[in-house]
Fold this protein.
Amino acid sequence: MTRALLSVSDKAGIVPFATKLQTLGFELVSTGGTLAVLEAAGLAVTPVDMVTDFPEMLDGRVKTLHPRIHAGLLARRDDEAHMATLATYGITPIDLVVVNLYPFKATIQKPAVTQADAIENIDIGGPSMLRSAAKNYAGVLPVVDPTDYQIVLDRLQSGTADEADFRQAMAAKVFRHTAAYDALIATYLTTEEFPTQQTLTYDRFDTLRYGENAHQQAAAYRDALGSDYSVLSADILHGKQLSYNNIRDADAALRIITEFAAPTVVTVKHMNPAGIGQGATIEAAWDAAFAADDISIFGGIVALNREVDLATAEKMHQIFLEIIIAPCFTDDAYAILAKKKNLRLLTLPFTTDLPQQLETTAILGGMVMQERDLATETTADFTVVSQVQPTAAQLAAMVFAQKAVKHVKSNAIVVARDGQTLGVGAGQPNRIDSVKLAINKAASKAGYDEAVLASDAFFPMDDSVSYVASHGITAIVEPGGSIKDQASIDKANELGIALVFSGVRHFKH
């Protein structure tokens, strides 16, 4: 007779699975709550303490940590000495292990969880059995995922459960599962910001059609503990599957719009803001964002931090957009936007308070990790370094522009008035080219006479100040910190420019 050991925290599907195993000739061995469920269903089950000849102890902390269990799992079936040892000690081999683990993740996600509760939900025996079974997968079939129950039964019935590729895949799944489980525990207990080893775990959200380009395969993974404020947590009300580029652009839009509490619309192309607009209503904010760049918005991503009403929806419906993200849509707004088959309509709860969190970027042979850039400057952080003093309107525009420029790829320049970007210069190898791009986009727009210019990093020389002044901009905000700051200050004084240092650099590579 073959022997199966079942010990599961998640009891879903275990009774019909065990019932079928028994009809296939398996002797069932089980523990604690699983044993009670199986016996209540009328199944003949051997308690694990009858196998170990040792009682469960320490409130269930010790029950399967025993040589009669682990020798039965680890003995190589093709090793005569191993099998002779089992016979000597009267140990029956275990051929199939069905284990899922204490709900550590669910426990630490409870609002009032204590560390004592979390620690009690760290499974020891379960991972030990799984790892033993997975190490010896040639002789033991490890099952960790209830969604695999039917696959296992089908293979047992068809005689294909012994295929090496299948068993290796099941073992690999076990080690991924236990590694992810341990990673969550390590993260929960770690207090160092950058520990010597950094182990991260994610759950696959979706396999994508392709990556940045059609020849690149891709998938999206969600943080194991999840976040409500994420494109991967959004409700997709309408439209086809999100692509790799959709996800990254939508993420950029969500990051940008958290900066603003007033009714705001953000349009994004290639992870840069194309336009940001604010207004007394969401329709007015849309008008401002659209006017900020009515060309780049084509095929773009739009995020709105207020309910989308019919008037705003009618305007958005007139152009080609990839995604619209908002807290909600009125019924009539949804009806008009949903006429476009491929337009994705997403909802999620908006916030202006992102938590600080470490974020990673892959590099060849490793990764780099840093905190999120959550720094936000107000006028209290500004230092006026020029003889000309900025007006109150210019200071307000600078605060707005600073919130925008931190989300633009470096070298980053934003020309804006209060509540509206007018021109964005992104990603140029030198700063003066970004200045020229931003001003070229902004110069013909209404409100340019009120515009200020924001730079994500200092001017390394005074050429940008000269160019700005020659194109009608009269106020600049930049971090300062260059060894040639004085040259820019002198040029601002010479040309009558209000120059303000924010004191904070916002590189975005």
Q: What stands out?
A: The chain has a mean pLDDT of 92. The longest strand covers residues 2-8. The two ends are 62 Å apart (CA to CA).
